[in-house]
Amino acid sequence: MMEPQCTNLDTPVQYLRGIGPKRAGALKEIGITTIDDLLSYYPFGYFDRSTILKISELPKYLDSEQKVTVIGDVVQSDVRWSRRTRKAIFFLTVSDGSGFLTCLWFEGAEYRRKAFKTGETLALSSTPSLDSYQRLTFVHPEIDRLTKGEDDEPDWGKLFNTGAIIPKYSSSRELESVHLDSRGFRRAIRTALDAFGQYIEDILPFETLRSRGLISKREAIKSIHFPATMDDQKKARTHLVYEEFFFQQLLHAIRQNERKKEPKGISYTVQSARAKKLVDSLPFKLTNAQLRVIREMNDDMRAPFPMNRMLQGDVGSGKTIVALIAMLVATDNGYQSVLMAPTEILAEQHARTIQQWTQGLDLQMRLLVGAQKKKERNETLNKLKDGSINIIVGTHALLEEDVEFHSLGLVVIDEQHRFGVMQRATLRKKGLHPDVLVMTATPIPRTLMLTTYGDLDVSIIDELPPHRQQIVTAIRKESEKEKVYEFARDELRRGRQVYVVFPLVEESEKLDLKDAVSEYERLKAGVFAGFSVGLLHGRMKGEEKDELMKRYKENSINALISTTVIEVGIDVPNATIMIVENAERFGLAQLHQLRGRVGRGSDKSYCILIANFDWYDLHKKKLTGGEITKEKDAARKRLQTMAETNDGFKIAEVDLELRGPGELFGARQSGYRMFKLADPIIDSDVLSVARDDAFTLVHDDTLMNKPEHRLLGRYVESRLKPLLQLSEIG
Ligand code: ADP
Ligand code: MG
To answer: Is the pTM of this model over 0.70?
Structure first.
């Protein structure tokens, strides 16, 4: 009988010729324990043999603008002072026996002087030029260190002459100390391929490979490491990228499938007297988008499986009322609901709003936050447990173990991206298969949506309530601040309200940022004299914050000086100006959220971003190709984006570009860790087809019983399902 493929590729690397216990130990540190792991340690780049030249060949390429690579030994290094630029220049002379090449750097001379040793072998890539002495020169070349192997015999020439394309592997000091540098990996992987390559089998169904034009897995693994041409490498990559997406999407499909056939969920009667009464009493009409989302939710709530829905809607689109309607459905059916928000201020606001909206609906709503007195808290916990509270609103405090429900039927999580996977799961587990609605105002680009939240159903409120005005966004520099204040005073005189936001609560010597506390004193005494001014920051007690927000909402405080604690969710429709100080310090998502605090009523609103640098100057520099640091350029781009668009999706795309997905959604959450090669943005086309294929397969052959799916089925059971629990989201 044929062994399943795992057994052979599961051989510990230690038994590979040339590895042994010491290297196996070092490999284990980076998660490589089996042959399979080693073969999936993909190169991060390649030397393309076709562009590796002898130094003597360089003159032919002088005018070609083509990037070429030279391999040579360091002959000499030198630091010289340039009188013109008043900076040190670093020179490195390299030889490969056919000639000499000068490399130079206009920065980091001191650091570089120490970094290179005479005699070491380097691969250098750049476009060749001639310096003023007509010497062949590389300016700021890219460098790869080619340390010599343990047998002390650099066989670069041989390698480069024989192999067409040479893979480059990342290494570390620890790995290098056991000779597992790029070259060591090359050798180990070559050996592994020779000995075990024959056992690599396709887990993907043959029909899928055929219809998607993919090469076999064995070919793919061979060519990702040692491609004959870069075209082969591309084909190999496509196979592996497809496979990564396919497995992930398969998990999403399986999970969705299992949830939807789960008969244990609650089957609600969605005709709700309370919800109807609420809607009839609202001072506004629900938007079509809100109505559509309510229908989508109702369908889920009626069905016997637990709802697992994400509600996306830009800031101010009116998600709260939609969530409340779902909670009223639960209440009418005799179930309890919980609404969790990331900050106390927001939880308190939700509690106030819900209190107002549900007056006369005969239900019990309570607030649970960290700052409450013990007696109050205990009373709430008791009533929650005996079922007399219908709706509970709160913060992380809800996650405590002693928070128990009588019959939790609906979990709503506001600003869900502020919570971790485990926190959402904890809350959900307080009920028996409750319905789950997570809400977010941070729009998630589709590609990320598919990878990260692939098994969630999605509802989108893509329409703002009517009569909302576009928010005018302006960028100002420090020196123009008086004018900004003057403008703010005008709005205050018209009875409108103002936010002024600072980045930090306390003075930080290092960053020289304004201290909200001392600025508050200054603004209160001077700029906003004659108006009522309040200060809000994260260090204040819950009650104090609550009191302050209440007074701001009533407009007995006209101008609110604050740190970013007001960033999410706060809803004061009469506030029309948002002034952000040191705006260059804020992230895009944050700025968008802050701007979302205004423009919530029918009055024209303004967001004024005060930057601590001359933005226009920077912008001009950028347009004329002047030199800007990366940091400043990113800040410039953030502000520019804010000025250009109010569209949360566009902003999210730029944010994704500037920060990368890991940072944006947290490495754990983003699902990016699952991928070695795939990039959901670059490879979004492959992602789409892999998703289609995976969902179709689970739909057509749920148990993977068809002969052509057997291997896949086994793989799912032994490898993928164990991941399922880890990646579960609440
Ligand atoms: P977000 O989606 O940002 O959480 P909220 O739920 O806080 O938005 O709603 C923003 C404001 O819009 C609130 O004052 C809310 O009462 C109001 N609102 C919600 N729906 C509508 C509507 N259909 N028409 C007018 N105002 C609405
Ligand atoms: Mg909200």
So the answer is: no
